[in-house]
Each structure stands twice: as structure tokens, then as C-alpha cells.
């Protein structure tokens, strides 16, 4: 009888129901993030790498492919109705990884350290604890615009690097 009057023994908030569809999407997001950022452990170290920095070793195309795969996390976020502010933060993580990742050599090391896809999967999972509002057509346009903007930035950076290399090559020879 005493227990019902002891607030420390009663939950302060109702426990949210587990939505199986959301859980499957979060599990898929975790899989993508792990594949891109931490699937391989470097022997003898705690360092883990994934396909993102490995694909980044392919000049030009590798970063674009890695970002294309990573952008699926944004579409999954819209599908499970993650708030736009979380999607914006996820997109910012992608932009940071894209901008720094475009620097040959240094960008790949940065991708190993930063692990933007793991960060995005964590943001996605954390945002599913509440019941967000339904996604709208505007949400989809927002995410598509973010993805297109990120790819435009990536391609622009790649072209700028190629242009700089051509100028340096011409000055050298």
C-alpha cells in the first residue's frame, strides 16, 4: 500500500509503445551506418572503418557513391517522420563529411574519425522515442533539396580540386 504513494517507485512518464515498422527502419539505418563507417576493425587497435573512407580513395566517384548511400538515412528519417530539425542536423553531418572528405588523403582520415553515418543513425534512433507529427509533402521536398544540395556541393568540390590540380600540373610542366 505504501508503494503507490512513493513517487520514486512510479514511472514519471508512460512508456512509449514500440512501433515495429520504426524499429525495422532504425535497424536498417544502423546497418547502413555500420557498413559505411565501422564494419571493419583495424587489428590491434580500437579503430573501426567502413566503406565510406575506402570508397573515398577512388578519386571523384568514391565520395559521391558514399554520400549517395549515406543519404538513404535522410529518406529513412522522413519515412518515420523525424522532425525537420533532426533531418537538418543529419544533413549538416553529411555536408561536413562531404566538404572535408573532398580533400585527398586528409578527407579519408577525417571520415574514419568523424563517422557521420553513425552519428546520423544515432540521431534517427533518438528521435523515434517520441511520437512525431506526420510527414508532409513539404518534408519530402525539404529532404530532396538537402540531398541535391549536398551532391551539388560534392560535385562542385571535386571539380574545383580537379581544376586546381590541372593548374598546378600546367605550372609544373
Output the keywords.
single chain; 173 residues; mainly alpha; 2 strands; flat; disordered N terminus
Structural features, described:
- The structure is a single chain.
- This protein is 66% helix and 2% strand.
- The protein is mainly α.
- The chain has one domain (19-172).
- Strands 1-2 form a two-stranded antiparallel sheet.
- A hairpin with a 6-residue loop joins β1 and β2.
- α4 packs antiparallel against α5 and α4 runs parallel beside α7.
- The protein is flat and about 65 Å long.
- The N and C termini lie far apart (89 Å).
- The model is unreliable at 1-7 (pLDDT under 50).
Secondary structure topology:
Blueprint: H1 20-37, E1 40-41, E2 48-49, H2 51-55, H3 61-70, H4 72-79, H5 84-101, H6 106-114, H7 116-126, H8 137-172
Antiparallel strand pairs: 1-2
Shape: flat
What share of residues is helical?
55-70%
What Rg do the Cα atoms give?
20 Å
Task: Give the terminus-to-terminus CA distance.
Answer: 89 Å
Q: Note the beta-strand portion.
A: under 5%
DSSP helical segment count: 8
Order of helices and strands: HEEHHHHHHH
What is the number of E strands?
Answer: 2
Lateral arrangement of strands in the main beta sheet = 1-2
Largest sheet: 2 strands, antiparallel
Question: What ranges have pLDDT less than 50 throughout 5 or more consecutive residues?
Answer: 1-7
Task: Put the structure in a nutshell.
This protein is an all-alpha fold and 173 residues long. The chain has eight helices and two strands; from the N terminus they run H-E-E-H-H-H-H-H-H-H. The chain has helices spanning 20-37, 51-55, 61-70, 72-79, 84-101, 106-114, 116-126, 137-172; strands at 40-41, 48-49.
